[in-house]
Amino acid sequence: MNERQDGVIAKGWIAMHLEAEGSEAQDASFWAYTALDDLRHDDVERYWNIINEIRRLNDSDEILSNLAAGPLEDLLANSGRDFIDRCEALAKTDDRFRLMLGMVWKNTIPDDIWTRIEVAALRM
After folding, report:
1. How far from the centroid of its chain's Cα atoms is residue 122's Cα?
2. Who's near 29: CB < 8 A, 6+ residues apart?
3. From CA 101, how far away is CA 51, in angstroms rounded?
4. Do 76 and 87 contact (CB within 8 A), yes or no?
5. pLDDT tens, residue by residue, 12-46
6. What is the 3-state secondary structure (H, E, C) of 31-93?
7. What is residue 19's DSSP assignment?
């Protein structure tokens, strides 16, 4: 894993989401969206690590909601059985992660995983 490259992807993904919709600046950062999305299929561990790097770099509500309704939702829909334990553990100790988990939409997440997400997101 190239942690430096992953950090660049994370920063680019954040920049893209903070730029004005349809702007040249947003378009210039779109490569990061594509790079992260490619990892969803090619290297799910790196995908998970970059999701967490993004939230470490910027845990604003805007970024967390974009992570929740995008990469995290996709991760849980496609690989939820492999990552739900980690999500539950993080939700117990990290309030911002728990908030983000609560922003995930069910979409195609399996019912048993979805139930666990709902419980983890409600823990106080």
Report:
1. 18
2. 12, 13, 15, 16, 19
3. 12
4. yes
5. 999 999 999 999 999 999 999 999 999 999 999 99
6. HHHHHHHHHHHHCHHHHHHHHHHHHHHCCCHHHHHHHHHHHHHHHHHHHHHHHHHHHHHHHHH
7. S
Q: Return the domain boundaries, the chain.
A: 3-122
Round to whole Å and give the CA distance between 10 and 122: 27
Find out whether 67 and 50 touch, Cβ atoms under 8 Å.
Answer: no
**Per-residue tokens: 107:** 């979409």
Query: Six-digit token pair at 87?
Result: 């999500």
**pTM exceeding the 0.85 threshold for the entire prediction:** yes
Q: How far apart are CA 4 and CA 6, in angstroms?
A: 5
Q: Distance between CA atoms of 90 and 120, rounded to whole angstroms? A: 9
